[in-house]
Amino acid sequence: MTMTPATPKGRVHLVGAGPGDPDLLTLRAARLLEGASLVVHDGLVDTAILAMVNPAAERISVAKARSRHTMQQEDINALLVREALAGRDVVRLKGGDPFVFGRGGEEAEACRAAGIEVEVVPGISSALGASAAAQIPLTHRDHASIVSFVAGQCKGLTEQDWSGLAGKGRTLVIFMGLATAAQISEKLMADGLAPDVPVAVIENATRAQMRVLRSPLAGLEALVSSHRVKSPALIVIGDVARARGDLADHTIRALALEAGK
Ligand code: SAH
Predict the structure, then answer these.
(1) Of 3-17, 57-71, 105-119, which one has max mean pLDDT?
(2) Are residues 31 and 71 in the same domain?
(3) Is 222 among the domain residues?
(4) Does 180 sit in the ligand 1 pocket, CB within 6 Å?
(5) In the predicted model, is pLDDT for residue 245 greater than 80?
(6) Which atom number of ligand 1 is nearest to the Cα of residue 126?
(7) At residue 21, what are phi and psi to the nearest 5 degrees?
(8) Number of structural domains, the chain?
(9) What is the average pLDDT across 93-109?
(10) Do residues 85 and 59 both lie within one domain?
């Protein structure tokens, strides 16, 4: 029996582009970009990283903005599947890590459902890149031993149960929280968080225009609006978000108290 061989399927590589600085790409990501023939990327991916893509490769932007969807998620999934079925290897480049609020899980599922092989290349999530760049340790023996990542803009923010995620000994990192900053601080204070809990807002982490702004929790919305903070930005809530000098002072005070016991 003779069978016409089917077109060999391409693979889909879901690749994390990190928080912005091209030096924070993994070697695997850099190699895939250099050898790519088709790159499908988000709006979040820095232009300096796009400059590393093989010049002969086709580049498709599927930028999404909060209120201005250029391409729906279903269309992105369909695009990846269509190209891979046509035999092309697809590098799907996503900001930060593909599996942290990046809908990478949905894209991987859509590809696997179509019988397409998927490779996932982790990236430095902006939560990690931003905390490193701002020198805010997400955990610290004296200040926090639990860290949580939440989405500030999601289905039914008010119904989301964040109780216990912020407060003493805990660090809360909020993605996509600028537009809902007022609801976020109200929600956390309603859950019992003190209005003076330290907050840091990190805008454009690891990029040249990076800003780190601080305020107590009650002033979060005022901070975001008075400094005209723009996306992308992360909100870090907890003792670790105190300014570095203060954090050190605080640690020294705690040590002195302990020593005096
Ligand atoms: N997968 C990404 C997150 C995608 S959701 C990751 O792992 O980082 C998009 C959100 O990520 C933005 O709204 C913002 O909250 C955050 N973000 C991404 N890049 C950032 C950057 N360079 N600086 C600050 N926040 C960033």
Answers:
(1) 105-119
(2) yes
(3) yes
(4) no
(5) no
(6) 8
(7) -60, 120
(8) 2
(9) 96
(10) yes
